[in-house]
Please model this.
Amino acid sequence: MEAYRDQYATLFNNGDGVTLLAISTDEISTLQSWAAEKKFPQTFVSDTEGILGEKYDVKFPAVNFYKRVVFVIGPDGRIQHIMRPFRELSADAYTELGAAVKKARGK
Model:
């Protein structure tokens, strides 16, 4: 996750025109503390009951843990690109993500 955080400014132009949400099965208080400590710029969403994880098929079966998946959402609110799994330690993954974000912005 830190590699992803460190790419945020470049990929998302510091959030200009892009909303980035990270969804986790952790409690919101745990997420907030961890995000503040690690200096994550994006918003974290707590999904302790697994409702979002089930809906978007990111939950591992039989365990309360999510796969690393990135959804690029366009200005119209629709999913424009899915990276499944997101390989956060791969430079190619960030190149692909950057291109998808640029395309979703219409640039």
